[in-house]
Every structure is written in structure tokens, then in C-alpha cells.
């Protein structure tokens, strides 16, 4: 297996201590979870050019087409302070990507709560965080990030529950996916150091999609759990919805779907 030079160069601009590169693998999260259990250090990454069985949340599938996307899993060994903020590691990845899109490509991306990244209201990235415990002791987390970069990365419509896009479709100049990956890893480290600060929540809040709009919260089976105006986040990252009778309702990230109240949804 040959590793592209551009990938190695990009990794050298980060502080990633170890990496695995695959031209094709079932799931980078699966490999990273195994690697985590075998003592791999904090910050190590697994990257794949193609995933044959990429994982989404709740047993859903994530499509990673060859040579067009980022499929990366970051191994995290949280310290004692960070262990108080475990639910924030997925939003952290979303915040980091939005930051990179803003500062390297001048693109205004948004976070569809809890952590999908949208460009122009279409999904361009998904995040899956998985944890490994040894009894009561947390061994660590794997934060898996899938980003559609080039147009070939967008899966066929039949495989999608929500409209998809890719970064390149919003950018007039050619994008190097390895540079985006490296910038994402660096932004992840930066925002990780901010997780205990209000700035972190502010950043998440600022980039929240559909704020002030009518949305539906749907259950896994598609039934509407509630609808109302999305008013923002609570201090611990739950979603606040103002229902029709002006009641504040709080939604905790679980197996519910947030949908804007558009006819096609
Ligand atoms: C996610 O799940 O969005 C989490 C995706 C995490 C993928 C990364 S890639 C690196 C690492 N290794 C893995 O094996 N996984 C992680 P969820 O919110 O459940 O969304 C899944 C849904 O998104 C699917 O049911 C499809 O409708 C849609 N989908 C699948 N592939 C997509 C793509 N490439 N672009 C946009 N939408 C997609």
C-alpha cells in the first residue's frame, strides 16, 4: 500500500503522534477502536481513502467513495478534566470543521444539532464518536469524521435521508482534501483545549443551523415527537425548542432527528 506524499506532508503539519493510512478499509472507527485498546497514544489517527462499510450513528451507514472524501478517526484519551465533558467531543469535531471552512475557505458552514455539518443546508460531514470502557474506567474515545470534499463523494440520492453536498461545490478554486484534513486535526486540538470555556458553547451556538426557524423533532421511526421554533442550546448542549404554546422544551441528543420544516422533509 503506498501512502500519498501529500498525505504525509499534511500530517507533518500537525502534532499527530502516529497514523494508519488505508487505501480501502471497512471502517476507520473500527480500526481506531482496536488500536485504542492496544495502547495507542492520544491524538493518533486512522485515515481511509475509501470505506466499504463506514459507520453512521445508530447502525446507519456512512458512504465514503474513493479518492474524494475525508474519512478519519481520531483517538482521544481524555484527561480527568476532559472526562467531565465527554458528550462534547462530537460537537467539538463539528465546531472544528466549521472553523476550518470559515478560516481556510471563507465558507459559512452550520451545525445541524447535534453535530452534522451543513453547507447551504445540505450535509457535508457527519461525526460518530464511540467510547471504550474497561469496567468503570474510560480507556478512551474514537471521534470519527466523514467529510465530502469532491463531487464524487456525494452518495446517490437513494442512500440519503437528508440532502448531501460536498465542499468543492461551494468553492471556486480546487481543494486539497489532505490540507483540509490537517487543518481539521489542528482545529480539533485547539477547540479541545477550549471545551471547558464558555467560548466553546458560544461557538457551537453561533453556528447552529435553523435558529429561529420552525423545525420538527422526529423519532427514529419518522414520527414527529414535537415541532416548534429552534431557539438555541442550553448550557450543557441540549437543544431548546419553543413549542406552539410558548413552552420551552429541551431535547437531549439521542435517537431523534432534527428537520427544518420544509415541504420536502
Ligand atoms: C453520521 O451518522 O453522520 C456519522 C458519520 C461518521 C462517518 C465517519 S467516517 C470516519 C469514521 N469511520 C466510520 O466508520 N465512521 C466515521 P448519521 O447522523 O447516522 O448519518 C448517517 C446518514 O447520513 C445515512 O443514513 C445517510 O442517510 C447519510 N449519509 C451517508 N453517507 C453520507 C455522505 N457521504 N454524505 C452525506 N450523507 C450521508
Could you walk me through the main structural features you see in this protein, from its secondary elements to its overall organization?
The structure is a single chain. This protein is α+β, with helices and mostly antiparallel strands. 23% of the residues lie in helices and 33% in strands. It has 5 helices and 14 strands. It has helices at residues 5-12, 28-37, 89-105, 177-192, 198-206, and strands at residues 19-22, 45-48, 51-55, 61-64, 69-76, 109-112, 116-119, 122-134, 137-148, 214-219, 224-233, 239-243, 248-251, 256-260. The chain has a 7-stranded mixed β-sheet with strand order 1-2-5-9-8-7-6, sandwiched between helices. Helix 1 runs parallel beside helix 4 and helix 3 (89-105) crosses helix 4. The chain is globular and about 60 Å long. The termini are far apart. The model has no long low-confidence stretch (mean pLDDT 93). The structure holds biotinyl-5-AMP. Residues 27-29, 51, 54-58, 60-64, 71-73, 116, 123, 126-128, 144-146, 148, 155, 159-162, 164 line the site of biotinyl-5-AMP.
Helical/strand content category: alpha+beta
CA radius of gyration = 18 Å
Strand order of the largest sheet: 1-2-5-9-8-7-6
Total strands: the figure is 14
Oligomer: single chain
What is the ordering of alpha helices and beta strands?
A: HEHEEEEHEEEEHHEEEEE
The bound ligands are: biotinyl-5-AMP
Mean pLDDT: 93
Indicate the percent of residues in helices: 10-25%
Instruction: Report the major sheet.
Output: 7 strands, mixed
Amino acid at each position: 500500500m503506498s501512502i500519498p506524499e501529500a498525505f504525509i506532508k499534511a500530517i507533518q503539519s500537525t502534532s499527530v503522534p502516529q497514523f494508519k493510512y488505508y487505501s480501502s478499509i471497512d471502517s476507520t472507527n473500527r480500526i481506531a477502536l482496536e488500536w485504542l485498546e492496544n495502547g495507542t497514544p492520544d491524538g493518533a489517527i486512522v485515515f481511509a481513502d475509501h470505506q466499504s462499510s463506514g459507520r453512521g450513528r445508530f447502525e446507519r451507514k456512512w458512504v465514503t467513495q474513493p479518492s474524494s472524501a475525508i474519512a478519519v478517526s481520531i483517538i482521544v484519551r481524555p484527561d480527568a478534566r476532559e472526562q467531565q465533558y465527554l458528550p462534547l467531543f462530537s460537537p467539538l469535531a463539528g465546531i472544528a470543521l466549521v472553523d476550518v471552512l470559515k478560516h481556510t475557505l471563507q465558507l459559512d458552514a452550520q451545525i445541524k444539532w447535534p453535530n452534522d455539518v451543513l453547507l447551504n443546508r445540505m450535509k457535508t460531514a457527519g461525526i460518530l464518536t464511540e467510547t471504550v470502557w474497561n469496567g468503570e474506567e474510560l480507556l478512551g474515545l474514537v471521534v470519527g469524521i466523514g467529510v465530502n470534499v469532491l463531487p464524487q463523494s456525494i452518495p446517490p440520492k437513494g442512500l440519503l435521508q437528508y440532502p448531501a453536498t460536498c465542499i468543492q461545490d461551494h468553492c471556486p478554486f480546487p481543494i486539497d482534501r489532505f490540507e483540509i484534513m490537517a487543518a481539521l486535526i489542528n482545529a480539533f486540538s485547539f477547540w479541545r483545549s477550549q471545551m471547558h470555556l464558555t467560548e466553546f458553547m458560544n461557538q457551537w451556538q453561533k453556528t447552529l443551523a435553523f435558529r429561529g426557524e420552525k423545525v420538527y423533532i422526529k423519532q427514529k421511526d419518522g414520527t414527529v415527537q414535537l415541532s416548534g421554533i429552534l431557539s438555541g442550546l442550553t448550557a450543557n448542549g441540549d437543544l431548546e425548542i419553543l413549542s406552539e404554546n410558548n413552552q420551552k422544551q429541551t431535547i437531549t441528543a439521542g435517537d431523534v432527528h432534527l428537520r427544518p420544516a420544509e415541504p420536502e422533509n
